Amino acid sequence: MKSVSRREFLGKIGIGTATAITFPALGARFQTVENTQKLNVALCGLGRYADFMAYGLESSKYCRIAGLISGTATKVAEWAKKYDVPKENIYNYQNFDQIIHNKNIDLVYVLLPNAMHKEYVIRAAKAGKHVIVEKPMALNAKDCEEMIAVCQEMGVQLAMGYRLHFEPYHLEIKRLGQEKIFGQVRLLEASLGYKTDGLNADPNEWRMKKTMSGGGPLMNLGVYCIQSCRYVLGEEPISVTAQFGPNTNLQYFAEVEASITWQLHFPSGAVATSTSSYNAGIDRFYASADEGNFELSPALSYGPFKGRTSKGVLSFADINQQTQQMDEIAKVLLARQTLPAHITGEEGWKDMKIIDAIYKSAKTSKRVIIK
Ligand code: NDP
User: Is position 135 annotated as part of the catalytic site?
Assistant: First the structure.
């Protein structure tokens, strides 16, 4: 297919009424935008997280569920009825590429198992659609590079489904860290884990299969730990040391790690320690700075979050993270502006490079330099 420039592409698709908005600076609160049109979103893969996303989209001001891509006819029938999706906007994994002819879809949200992210982001981009991809962006950093390159070539925008980038407690810890409100942050701890090997656990689910998931809790949950440390410091890690945790259920964790702990080393000298786990519950963030500290717990799940600093309690409205994420992304796309770098595929690629390095360090028991 002939490649088109972004400008040509955006000119061709009829999204939004161009509205003058400016992008929120890093850490700033969100802009408001007057826009009566909505972004037409097609959800690809109608699983558990698609359910959360659809629920969030029900209250969205700037998006509508306009299309569905699924391999399960029964789900499609149910979802199409519930969200009033016309049959010409419904695809399966075989005829998905036909979406190129559908002017009523602006964006494809890829909510598939990790190993399928790359293929479906590339197919959506080649069909001229903007894309949001769930975390982790792909199975490795090299695949991320390919995905970014195709989106660039096709003139479409690629966003990560990073729900916490729009969440008030996270915007606040980012501000506290980057603006050095308590001085230089020296130590961080950010961990997320759930016990998943309970009685009803299915060892055949895709998350337990390395070819589909790429790994265990690091691939699934680790990105939130990595992300929070990166954006609180506003720095990129230069090296990592990592250790696999004990495997408490050899049958269930046959292909992926049960838990993993790592230490990221940053240019300022700050060190971040994190664990992501499938055999222990944990959900917290802590930062110790020269003149105080701040923390969230719960910190990285869907909320409601709780937070405090060494000066007092942090208190923000409890929001629907999925609604907020989608509305903030949609406002930018509807206004035909460029997504800020910290929510694009570039950001997913940076996290994936770190994840690759964490696995390498855990396997080799050596410090790994992150290039
Ligand atoms: P699910 O297993 O619940 O859903 C995945 C869906 O993908 C399935 O329901 C199915 O939908 C489709 N699918 C297509 N091929 C396959 C296949 N071979 N095996 C399994 N499913 C297939 O996964 P989740 O919804 O929990 O996770 C999906 C993505 O979302 C993952 O990348 C995950 O990391 C991410 N996620 C993000 C979260 C966040 O907080 N941001 C939270 C949870 C997940 P259909 O029947 O319609 O074809």
Answer: yes
Kindly give, in sequence order, each residue whose CB lies less than 8 Å from that of residue 309, ignoring residues fewer than 6 positions away: 176, 182, 292, 293, 294, 295
For the purposes of burial, counting CB atoms within 10 Å of the CB of 256, is it exposed (0-12), middle (13-18) or buried (19 or more)? buried
Report the relative pairing of strands 39-44 and 107-110 from DSSP bridges: parallel
The residue behind tokens 């598939």 is 112
What does the pLDDT read at residue 217? Answer: 98
- Residue 360 falls in the annotated catalytic set: no
Q: Report residue 227 as tokens.
A: 């992300």
Please list the alpha-helical segments (H only) found in 132-196.
141-154, 168-178
Counting atoms of ligand 1 from 1, which one is nearest the CA of 71?
A: 48
What are the pLDDT digits (tens) for 67-95?
999 999 999 999 999 999 999 999 999 99
308-339: per-residue pLDDT in tens?
A: 999 999 999 999 999 999 999 999 999 999 99
Residue 111 to residues 44, 58, 89, 135, 176, Cα–Cα distance (Å) = 6, 17, 17, 9, 32
Do 110 and 133 contact (CB within 8 A), yes or no?
Answer: yes
- For the chain, list the domains and their CATH numbers: 6-164 (3.40.50.720), 168-317+346-369 (3.30.360.10)
CB 213 near ligand 1, within 6 Å: no
Q: Is the pTM of this model over 0.90?
A: yes
